[in-house]
Amino acid sequence: MGLTFSSSQKESMTDIFNINKKNNEFVIALCGNPNTGKSSIFNILTGLNQHTGNWPGKTVVNARGAFPYKDKDFILMDLPGTYSLFSTSVEEEVARDYLCFGNSDLAVVVTDATCLERNLNLVFQVMELKEKVILCINLIDEAERKHIEIDAENLKKSLGIPVVLTSARDGRGIEELKDTLNKAVENNITFTPNIIKYDSSIENEVSHIVNKLKGLKYPLNLRWLALRLIDGEPKLLDSLYSRLEENDLSLIKNINSQLNSSKSKVREIIVETNYRYAEDLKNRYVKEKDSKKISRDIKIDNILTSKTFGLPIMLIILGTIFWFTIKGANYPSQLLADILFSFEATLTKWFTYLGSPSWLHGILVLGLYRTLAWVVSVMLPPMAIFFPIFTLLEDLGYLPRIAFNLDHLFKKACAHGKQCLTMCMGLGCNAAGVIGCRIIESPRERIIAIVTNNFIPCNGRFPTLIAISTIFFSLKVAKGSSVIPALSVTLIVILGVLITLLVSYILSKTLLKGIPSTFTLELPPYRKPQIGRVIYTSIIDRTLFVLGRAILVAAPAGILIWILANVTIGDTNLVTHAANFLDPLAKFIGLDGFILMAFILGIPANEIVLPILLMAYLSTGTMIEFDSLDSLKEVLLSNGWTSLTALNTMLFTLLHWPCSTTLWTIKKETGSIKWTILSAAIPTAIAFIICFITTTIYKLAF
């Protein structure tokens, strides 16, 4: 029977490295490079018997699951995807430490059948560390489509470990993998790993150190430890010092102090030897009968990632998606709004029929329900369009090409190239963009991406930006057309990108100091999209997930907004009192108190900022939508708006604090109150500073 893990069990697990195993329970460490289908192997083996959390003391996500096979229970630990175990990143450090100090019975290394050569480097390193290793060559279906044949039997003989060919997408080879695991833990398989031998100078020193390490009590592979000591890996020593007893530590410290200073070149020799051996194995056991498909992919990449065409094509594709999302969402948004608001009239009739007091009708219908109707009708259609298209590009394999094109730009800002992908997701919804930051392996750079994602305007801010720019910055060139609004909104988005890069750079030099991680971007092959996965991931994991959080926050906020608009002190409601209080501060940055109050009350969703502002200006007591741009313009001008007010409102719309759904998501993703507060404080401070500068320049000029 498989193991399941409840949330209470998750909280009580203090040391995920050492699992208390029962009889007939075996722990398997699942390793592999990114983009090898490792997670697919994990999912197909464990099904629903899995949970996720963080490694102790790390922000790196772990996945842990279980599955039964014959009379045994297997516990599967899905280690972070890494390219090596040299601990140049937190992911590599976590994977290496688990293989060293975890109580796993064996390791399975998942590789990509279409690029086996570059995946073998990790296989060699795991073979040096663990006695029992199984090589799982996944994506064999894609290899077949590319006419790539792998001689698994002879590769098995050369490596001295079991080799299993799988295709997790269609379940091929999974039963063979389970059977191999079963035989391995029963010792029905003889493991004779053919460990790589390096040049004589390294091997002689390794032999010398191994003799000295024979007194070590902790069960580590002595040859591997000797290589790491020669290699001089400081993070390994830190891990050893935190886990070993004093006698073992003294022995290792003594050996380490006697090593000469030539160890800086050892890693280069090791890496070069590993890659030469991987190339040799590939030449012997991997046959590419038809290179047309590979050649086709290379030709496509030469265009999509070229310096000349890469960026323009990327901008055209993203611009088309953005345009299609905005245009395509107009009709369903209006239709959904009509349905939801027509039901509001029905609710009002019910309340009237039941003779309920007006305040109860106001709180529940005009406050709670109307706010929910606004949020759902405005948020759902754009997300339902944007996320499937974005997920489709992800499944096709195009998103890594976007990261490749922009990597150099983000490197200059000391950020991660994949941050551009999370920025693109932020165009649909900043909360989804924050969730998308999981693709960034480095915790430091992941937090930078999370904190700065808010500078990219989400779909909830565009109605405000478009309406204000059309009213105040419109230049009619023909009947019904306008140039300036589109240009001004485009410039606002570009400003958001520039501020994202600037703040990323400042954070990397101050609060989040560090060297940009090595971005080994592996361009996956172009794949036929899995429509089922696209629909599930985009609708369930992203659209409904984000919308659900927005609803949970918007419901109580709608009640609060109605109360503030209808409870009076003297002859003035609380919204007006608050706006008058905020007015001096708002005037300082070129706004007014009502505008600032609308942004504060609009924290549940950016979509309701303008309705709240109209409610406050017109003292209606409930949020209202403008009938037309002309009517909106009339209201704004009658309340003292100028071109400066409009410009600063657009800037504040771009730069102000994240909505409550995004803040909630940041707290969930970072697990930190500190970074949640800073994610709100940093953009707010920047918004005030830029609006103040704009106001000062405007007053000096005019």
Short description:
With 702 residues, this protein is an alpha/beta fold. The chain has 29 helices and 11 strands.
Q: Which keywords apply here?
A:
702 residues, alpha/beta, Rossmann fold, 3 domains, seven-stranded mixed β-sheet, two-stranded antiparallel ribbon, 29 helices, 11 strands, 63% helix, disordered N terminus
Chart the SSEs and their pairings.
Elements: H1 7-12, E1 25-32, H2 38-46, E2 50-54, E3 61-69, E4 72-78, H3 90-101, E5 106-112, H4 116-129, E6 133-138, H5 140-145, E7 148-150, H6 152-159, E8 163-165, H7 174-185, H8 200-213, H9 222-231, H10 234-243, H11 246-258, H12 266-285, E9 286-288, H13 292-304, H14 310-353, H15 358-396, H16 399-412, H17 419-428, H18 430-436, H19 443-452, H20 462-472, H21 484-509, H22 531-566, E10 568-569, E11 572-573, H23 574-588, H24 593-601, H25 609-618, H26 629-638, H27 643-655, H28 660-670, H29 673-701
Parallel strand pairs: 1-4, 1-5, 5-6, 6-8
Antiparallel strand pairs: 2-3, 3-4, 7-9, 10-11
Helix pairs in contact: 4-12, 8-9, 14-15, 15-22, 17-18, 18-28, 19-21, 19-29, 20-21, 20-26, 20-27, 22-28, 23-24, 24-25, 27-29, 28-29
How is this structure best described in words?
This protein folds into 3 domains: 7-185, Rossmann fold; 200-259, no CATH class; 312-701, no CATH class. The chain contains 29 helices and 11 strands. It starts with 6 loop residues before the first helix and ends with a helix. The chain has 702 residues and is of the alpha/beta class.
